[in-house]
Each structure stands twice: as structure tokens, then as C-alpha cells.
Design a protein that fits this description.
mainly alpha; 4 helices; 62% helix
């Protein structure tokens, strides 16, 4: 099967930028990690909202070090106006 993919790539090369190809691959890998992803025979998709919520919270916690604490305080006080 790898041989067929090699032939396909030679005949029809992917002309998109490498960064776009990499982002697409990362997106597909992230989707494959979802436990509750279901695809219908017509191409529809469904995901348990609770799993998405958990993923968002984990990502937010992982990226917390990127946000300056003084910025967070400032945005909170603006929101109270």
C-alpha cells in the first residue's frame, strides 16, 4: 500500500506550503485522539460536549504560563466597568 501512496505523490504532488500540510496533519492526529468522536456513513460527525470541555480546560491549564499575571488582573478590572 505504501508503494501506491508513493506513486500517487509522484503523479499528484501536494503543492501546499509545508506549514499548512503540518497543521492539517496535527489536526487529524488531534481528532484521532478523541474518544467519543463518531462519524456517520453520510460524513456527519458528533463528539461528546463533555470531552471537548475537558480538552479545553486541559489546554487552558497547559497554556497558563503564557499569560502574564498582570495582564489577567488588568482585563478583569476592565470587565467590571
Amino acid at each position: 500500500m505504501d508503494f501506491l501512496y508513493c506513486i500517487w505523490d509522484i503523479i499528484f504532488p501536494d503543492l501546499r506550503p509545508k506549514s499548512e500540510i503540518r497543521r492539517e496533519r496535527e489536526f487529524i492526529e488531534a481528532l484521532n485522539q478523541l474518544r467519543t468522536l463518531r462519524v456517520t456513513d453520510r460524513g456527519g460527525m458528533s463528539i461528546d460536549p463533555e470531552e471537548i470541555r475537558e480538552q479545553v480546560l486541559r489546554s487552558r491549564e497547559a497554556a497558563m504560563h503564557l499569560v502574564d499575571p498582570t495582564h489577567r488582573k488588568r482585563s478583569r478590572t476592565r470587565g467590571e466597568d
